[in-house]
Amino acid sequence: MAPIKIGLLISGSGTNLQAIMDNIQGGHINARIELIISNKKDAYGLERGRRAGITSLYIDRASFKDEEEYNLSLIREFKARKVDLIVLAGYLRALSKDFIAEYRDKIINIHPSLIPSFSGKGYYGQRVHEEVLRYGVKISGATVHFVDEGMDTGPIILQEPVHVRDEDTIESLRERVLAVEHRILSQAIKLYCDNRLEIVGRKVIVKGEGDEKGID
Ligand code: GRF
Q1: Domain ranges in the chain?
Q2: Mean local confidence (pLDDT), 201-214
Q3: I need a labelling partner for 77 at 20 to 30 A (CA). Which of 7, 49, 166, 181 fits?
Q4: Which of 48, 178, 186, 189 to mutate for ligand 1's pocket (most ligand atoms within 8 Å of CB)?
């Protein structure tokens, strides 16, 4: 089967991007990254892409009159490269309605908590772990989900728990959750590329058996 063409949106260091590139390189995922776009000029993820020979673009939101125009430019870039799947790997902007309509059920996001806990408006990056520790929950984790018009509200593909330790700091918890993010995001992309995900209402059914456990 021809590799699925993937487009990535990033805003930061790109460690999730790196995990995806490594798993594709290792033959675990039948995909090819066609384009990486960042809304942040200094996102190290752009450097990771360039080193891997992947077209990596900084597209400055300030160059557009509004969110709709900015998102239309993102769509144009992805469409020009016939991208079939969009992955938000630490992308910190909301997508427009046009973008979500254009790629309905073809946008995957990674979130550093067990949605619906510690998710939604304002919950991103280390603010999530800060609230987890402040609240005193015993279990956190990571979630991969399809993106819909809401904020972190689309159908959940995979989740994995991370036990919170009494001595945890934001950084120590973030590190353990990030390691889970790297694994389950690649697993979810593999399942998508192997056509093993079926959305039934709010649920995502994983069909058949496969070797996604081979993804570390
Ligand atoms: C991760 O914690 C992810 O959950 C959140 O932003 C961070 C991205 O990290 N959305 P990286 O840029 O992939 O290293």
Answers
A1: 4-206
A2: 85
A3: 181
A4: 178
